[in-house]
Write a structure and sequence with these properties.
single chain; CBS-domain; 5-stranded mixed beta sheet; binds zinc ion; 4-stranded mixed beta sheet; alpha/beta; disordered N terminus
Length: 420
């Protein structure tokens, strides 16, 4: 059930999630989908498992224990991610944020590990911490049980836990769920932790990072398909609605494996290419004094360019596009000037011409289909879109294939490395 994995909102996007605060200098964010996960767990526990284990408990006791256990699970997920984050930091890799979401959590790291050893340590830190938590919860939970009850625990938990209190019950459930988290994450399919270990091993023995990613990524896709198949079997063959969860999880994993693979291959293919080598330099601009009606009719609707650099006395000072123009109704447009709908360059997300193209990938992912203005020492020189990167890799197949094989995918699959 509660399986921790990485984020649904692609790339470096943080919109939609809520900032909780900072821990060890790392921003902790909560995606709204966590509420769904939290509610599902509380309901499953309070109306299912705890009723089965403790039919004599009052409703209040069942619900409060379920709330406590689900909160402690969120805490467990967070410490799992913190373990990845702190391990990464010990290798001087920056970790800007951790996000908790529907399938668990994700630690977003600034770059990939530089050696197979470091990759292996960072990947193993999370499951090892979950394993430690499982042992700790089991020790606390078992301390109140008699020898006879302990023996019954695996074969008949309802009987073993019949006379135990909320703390014992919650701890033993948390022990089992943390153990499951550790084991699930160790499945050798990228981008699960186990997949990263697999990648580190192939990398170590082949010396080829991209080959290692391809092997681990393919394994991740197989794991995803297997999960989906078993979900369908549970759902249709066994009539168990819980199978739907496996279908979603499997789909999510295989999608992620593919996206991560594309991303790593693309990053590698881009190598040391600069933004200025890939940006679009053919574009038109509009004068700040043009009225919005003319801007819409004679500029925006007359070509494919969606974002227009705005000139003030020959210097480009901002950007104007459809969003700004649609602030005014068709009747009002002729009374307003482009300068009123322009967004100044200073407040617009931009990228430096001399930055590495691979460093611009998160920004491009966040921008979606919109072009990102490129600045050279503060002066506007061109646009870069996710599409330009894909086009570049398509036009330089020798670079890409020589290094990595064919690249396929969409701009939306561009993202930063994360540890689930
Ligand atoms: Zn993990």
């Amino acid at each position: 059930m509660a399986v921790e994995q990485r984020v649904g909102s692609a790339g470096g996007k943080t919109w939609g999630s809520v900032r909780l605060g900072h821990l060890f200098g790392i921003e902790i964010r909560l995606d709204p989908s966590v509420l769904l996960m939290f509610a599902l767990i509380v309901i499953t526990l309070a109306q299912g498992l705890f009723v089965e284990w403790h039919p004599d408990w009052s409703k209040t006791r069942q619900w409060t224990t379920a709330l406590f256990a689900a909160s402690a699970l969120l805490g467990s997920l967070l410490t799992h991610e913190l373990a990845h984050a702190l391990a990464a930091r010990s290798f001087r890799i920056r970790v800007p944020r951790i996000t908790l979401f529907l399938f668990g959590g994700a630690a977003e790291i600034e770059s990939d590990a530089e050696t197979p050893g470091a990759e292996c340590v960072i990947a193993l830190a999370g499951p090892l911490l979950s394993l430690t938590l499982a042992i700790a919860f089991a020790v606390i939970g078992q301390s109140e049980l008699s020898e006879a009850q302990r023996k019954l625990l695996l074969s008949d938990p309802a009987q073993a836990l019949a006379s135990s209190g909320p703390l014992t019950t919650a701890c033993l459930w948390l022990a089992s769920i943390n153990l499951m988290l550790a084991l699930f994450n160790l499945i050798p399919g990228f981008p699960l932790d186990g997949g990263r270990v697999l990648r580190a091993l192939v990398w170590r023995f082949s010396g080829n990072f991209v080959l290692a990613t391809r092997v681990a990524g393919a394994a991740g896709q197989y794991v995803g398909w297997l999960l989906m198949l078993s979900g369908v079997w549970l759902l249709l063959g066994q009539g168990r609605p819980g199978g739907l969860w496996y279908v979603f999880l499997g789909w999510f994993l295989s999608h992620l494996a593919r996206a991560s693979l594309t991303d790593v291959v693309m990053r590698h293919a881009l190598g040391r290419q600069k933004v200025r080598d890939l940006m679009q330099t053919r574009f038109d601009s509009v004068d700040a004094g043009v009225d919005v009606h003319e801007f819409v009719e004679q500029y925006l609707l007359r070509g494919p360019q969606t974002l227009w650099p705005v000139r003030e006395q020959g210097i480009i000072t901002g950007m104007a596009g459809l969003a700004g123009a649609s602030r005014f109704s068709p009747d009002e447009r002729w009374r307003h000037r482009v300068i009123e709908i322009m967004e100044p360059l200073a407040t617009f997300p931009t990228v430096a011409a001399d930055a590495r193209a691979s460093e611009a990938l998160p920004l491009l992912a966040a921008a979606g289909d919109s072009p990102v203005p490129v600045l050279d020492q503060g002066v506007f020189v061109g646009f870069l879109r996710g599409r330009d990167i894909l086009r570049w890799t398509a036009m330089h197949p020798q670079t890409v294939e020589g290094e990595a094989g064919m690249v396929s995918g969409s701009a939306g699959s561009i993202r930063k490395p994360r540890y689930p």
